[in-house]
Each structure stands twice: as structure tokens, then as C-alpha cells.
TrEMBL record:
<protein>
    <submittedName>
        <fullName>DUF4286 family protein</fullName>
    </submittedName>
</protein>
<dbReference type="InterPro" id="IPR025563">
    <property type="entry name" value="DUF4286"/>
</dbReference>
<dbReference type="Pfam" id="PF14114">
    <property type="entry name" value="DUF4286"/>
</dbReference>
């Protein structure tokens, strides 16, 4: 069963258009790497009461938030990416947009799958 490699981004308003253009190119490069199946970019929206704790940080209110889900074949594919490519792929964004965005990452491992 495939896994999701999730990247949560917070982008300063001043660079968001340029950053998003770069991000789409970056995703294209990621999808050329071994083990990546597809990517979906999300614009997270608050549901009343659900993201309230984040509102305590003024910086987050001003930043554009974007979530990218990379679907990968399996944990082995993720390990391969992390060992061989992650550092250089991350360095490109940091070099282009120093201290203008933040990224956190996590892996979503499926417990079960349901379908109607």
C-alpha cells in the first residue's frame, strides 16, 4: 500500500506568487524521482474551532499555508529519497527564499482503506 509524504508550508505574503510558481516546478522535479507516484497541493481551510490554537501566532495568520501530499510507492521509496535527494531538493527552496517560508514534514502510513 502506498504512503503519503506530507509537506506543510507557511509562505510569507510578499513571495507567495513567486514561491507557488517555483513550488509547481519543484513538484515536477520530485515526480521524476524514483518512488513518487503523484502529488496533490492543498489549500487548507479552517473549519470553525479546528485550527484555533494556530491563531495565537500572528505570523501564521499572515502566512499563506499550503499542504503538499506526495504519494509514494512505499517506505523503501521514501527512505531512498531521504538518503539520496532530500537535502539537495530542500536546499534549492532555502537558497531561493531564505527565511521567507517554513516547512514541516511527516509521513502518513495507511492503517486501512475504505471505498464505497
Amino acid at each position: 500500500m502506498s504512503i503519503i509524504y506530507e509537506v506543510n508550508l507557511r509562505i510569507e505574503p510578499a513571495i507567495q506568487h513567486e514561491f507557488m510558481s517555483w513550488l509547481y516546478e519543484h513538484i515536477g522535479e520530485m515526480l521524476k524521482l524514483k518512488g513518487f507516484i503523484r502529488a496533490v497541493v492543498y489549500d487548507p481551510q479552517e473549519v470553525e474551532g479546528l485550527l484555533a490554537e494556530e491563531k495565537n501566532e500572528v505570523v501564521l495568520e499572515q502566512a499563506r499555508q499550503v499542504v503538499v501530499h506526495y504519494e509514494m510507492h512505499d517506505k523503501i521509496a521514501l527512505k531512498y529519497y531521504l538518503e539520496r535527494y532530500a537535502q539537495s531538493m530542500r536546499a534549492d527552496g532555502i537558497a531561493r527564499f531564505p527565511k521567507q517560508f517554513s516547512a514541516t514534514r511527516r509521513v502518513l502510513n495507511p492503517l486501512n482503506s475504505f471505498k464505497d
